[in-house]
Amino acid sequence: MATNRQFRRRQTNNVRTSYTYKPGDAIRDDEKAVYRNLIVVFIIVIGLSGILYLWGIDIVVKLSDFWRDILPSQNIAVIDNTDSTLELSAPRLDPLPLYVNEPTIDIKGWAQPGLDVEIFINDISKASVLVDKNGRFEYTANDLSGGENIVYAVAVKGDTRSPDSNTASVTNDTTKPIIQIDSYDATTEPPYTALIVGSVTEKSTITINDQRVILQADNTFNHSQTLVPGENTITVKAIDLAGNEAKQDLTITIDAVEATPQAEPAP
C-alpha cells in the first residue's frame, strides 16, 4: 500500500539581501602594483615633456649632426645668393584680377630670399622691392593706365638678372555700362505682368528688382516681371566685370479701379 508523504518548505529567517565586495589581500596587492605603475608612467611622461620643452631644439640639432656624420655621402645643396655669377630663377607672380575699376592694385609673388625684384607694368619699371626671408615680395601700384596693363617681374642680384616672371593682364575699366530698355509692355488683365526687353553695352550681371536675369551672347536680355494694381517701380541694374554699376528705374501703373472686382447688386 502506498504511503502518502507531505512535504512542507521550511521558513528561513535572517536572509541577506545585499552583498559587499571584500577583496582578499592578494587582490589588494595587485591593485597597488597597477597604481604604482600608472604613477611611474605619469612621472616619465611629465619628465620627457619637460626635457623636450627645455632642450628639444638642441637635441634635434645634435641628432641632425649625428646623422650627417654617419652619412657623409648625402650632401645638402645650399644656395648662396651672394654669388653674382649664380643663375637666378624667375620670380612667380600671384594671380591678379582680370578687371579693376581703379588705378590701384596689389602685386605679390615668390622669389629667392634676399634678392631684389623689379616690377614692370607695360614694360616700364615701377619699383624694386626686397624679397623677405620667406621668399615673398609685395608692391602696391597706384598708377595703372586706363585699359589693359601687362604686369611682370624680374629678380636682380648685382649685374645678374633673372628671366621674366609669368605675365598678368589687368584691365583698368572705370566706365559704367549703359542700359538700353527697348520695351516694357504690361498686360491689361490679371495676372498683371510686364515683359521687359533691353540690352547693355558690355558683359555684365543683370538684375531686375534684385532677381538675376540671363544675359544673352549679344548682350540682350528679357524678363517677365509680376505687377500689382497701382504703381510699380522696377529697377534694372547692370554690373560689369570691373564692378562698375549702372541702373535704370521704370514705373508701370496698373489702374486699381479696373483691377478691383465689381460688387454685384443685392437681389
UniProtKB/TrEMBL annotation:
Keyword Transmembrane helix assigned: yes
TM regions (residue ranges): 38-56
Record keywords: Membrane, Transmembrane, Transmembrane helix
InterPro entries: Ig-like_fold
Pfam families: Glucodextran_B
Protein name: Bacterial Ig-like domain-containing protein
Source species of the chain: candidate division WWE3 bacterium CG22_combo_CG10-13_8_21_14_all_39_12
